[in-house]
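LOG
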Amino acid sequence: MSEIRLSRAVKEDRELILRWRNHPSARKNFFNAKVVSAAQHRRWYKEKLLCRDTVMYVASAGEERIGVIRFEKRGRKIDVSVNLAPEYIGKGFGSKFIALAGERYFAETKETGPIEARIKKGNIASEKAFLKAGYKKAEDLRRTVKLIGRPSDVSLCEGAICIRPLTKRHINSRYLKWLNDTNVTRFLSTRKASSKDLINFYKKAKASNNSVIFAIELRGRHIGNVKLDIDWRHNHASLGIMIGDKLQWGKGYGSRAVRLASEYCFDRLGLSVVILGVIGIHKSAIKAYKKAGFKIKGRIEDMLEFEGRRADKVIMGIDKRRFEECRP
């Protein structure tokens, strides 16, 4: 099966989505099975693209668009509707598409759910796809089956190392001590911070639609962070990492955390590429990133100021194929 990629629906997708909507194989599973006119669809589609509470993603496999999924926030819940291109129905794309789109929706919007799918009774294929994507059956009525999906509890582990979403419990004096230790921040853009600075950073990052921050934990103990800045339009993430606990340096934990963050990007969000920038003289970091599968993609000479002299910036990256080749 080809890898699925997601992109926000745009004006140019309108006619294709209408064609999928009016295909007999789709209409038989809709509560409203009538053919929608081009004028009706044009008005509806414009309204949805402009609505702040509606998010639509189009899925692609290879060069082909294969379906559309729509999330609509209604009060405390979120409705979801999915429609696959007729030629891709029954080929196993549905559950993967639903799961990827749900992860991306929660990461991009910071919503907390639940997502509610209402499926016409007898549409067994759709019901199975949502169940396989992690939804749970909530109601089985005479005409409707209702399924509920919630944000997954992201917890990825490799050996004793796990990454989990950064929470308020991680924002403490120990974390602040890392930020004010020049040995920890020597190669980072981070500088000395106050408690207020740390709290503001946390609030800003949690509210951002383009950032995801994980705490790196060693057997449950917080030892550092991984931050992802995501470009949803171009389907890639920029990664940054800090191992704040100096007792854990040189033990390979950074490489493991980078691999886990890459796994999240590729497997949970369906991104295409993960990149990072590192100062050229930081040889141990470059070695660690290579161990995680990253390759040097370029070098910008004398871009950075470091301890009174100029230094190169090295650009490194990994794509989905390379990640699979290096997967432990």
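LOG (cont.) second protein
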Amino acid sequence: MQRKRQNKDGTYWFRCESQWKYAKEACVVVSAKEKDILEQILLAVKKYSDILCRQAVVFWQNRDTNNEKHAAAQEEIITIRQELSKTKHYLRGLYESLVSGIISQEEYRQMKSDYEGKIADLQDRGLKLECDKQDFERNNDARFDLFECLRNTTLRPDLTAELIDELVDKILVYPDKSVEVIFKFQDELEVECVG
């Protein structure tokens, strides 16, 4: 949409110009006063900001618990790595015990199967914990970015181009002049709404 000054009184409008630039059927004629669009955007930003404030409070309240869970998972990953190393060492030594005659062929097969099963279980658990750890760290980073945006938003009650750039991914204006604001942190907003 292009911003145009429509009247001599200084009223600005946003208008889709695809019909004039490309083809008549390229777009439905959509135009709206800049003032009306900005009011709807400001309402959406304030609503979004309220949701983010609630999320920030919950996040900080649960921060210690989440950090403790993260630390426990990290310790479990270390334990799993140690257990994997030890089990693989036993598995390698198993063949030597077979060749030396310490264990029978049947005992070898059974113990080998047990060790391989344990290794597979440990690897699966370790992989899950690693994925959870990466998700936790990625979500933490995203939330800190989000809360930094929120802090900047609450310090500026007016709607500025800088604020829109920080929070808004895109703005859709429909033929009925309604406005939909797609926020950059939409995933976090959906988590809040679902939860």
